[in-house]
Specification:
There is one protein chain. The chain is mainly α and about 180 residues long. It has 2 domains: about 70 residues, Multidrug-efflux Transporter Regulator, Chain: A, Domain 2 (Orthogonal Bundle), CATH 1.10.1660.10; about 110 residues, no CATH class. It has 10 helices and 3 strands. The chain has a 3-stranded antiparallel sheet with strand order 1-3-2. A hairpin with a 5-residue loop joins strand 2 and strand 3. Helix 8 packs across helix 9 and helix 8 crosses helix 10. The chain starts with a strand and ends with a helix.
Amino acid sequence: MDYSISQVCKQFGLSRSTLLYYDTIGLLKPSSRRPNNYRSYSQEDVKQLEQICKYRQTGVSLGEIKCLLTASEGTIKDTLEKRLDELNKEMNKIRNQQHLILSLLKNGELLKRLQIIEKDTLIEILKLAGLNEDDMDRLHAKLEEMSPEGHQIFLEALGIDKGEIMQIREHASSIKNENNQELIK
């Protein structure tokens, strides 16, 4: 079954000019033309457009998408992991901006509205849960052991400055090393 440009636009919520642009740049060429010279899209074209739309939702550029459509699984994985890293950096930048604005405004109600947990709040929650300083140190050591990058992201999300994050991670690593030494004995 073939689809007209208007059917494809409606199915994917795209404008006609978007599909025409995709055709112009060679991203999605219709399989055939109807007798009236209108574009006609095959089921394969529709599947390809579905893939294009998924990649667009990830924020990958059209140029990269064009390459991804014919790329190996490894290249696709690398490109998507690179995009994920970019998003993490953007999210960290936004979190830092949020914390800076909150510190400038000194408004606790905004903090609740943004659903941000700050370091002091988390420490109080952990203390209420029965954790002491040594327990929290072990928690950081375990996070550092299991996922150093995840530990970094977690600390950044709490609005902790880079210097303190470095101290926490170094301390966590030293605790982890001490624990490993004790296991060897």
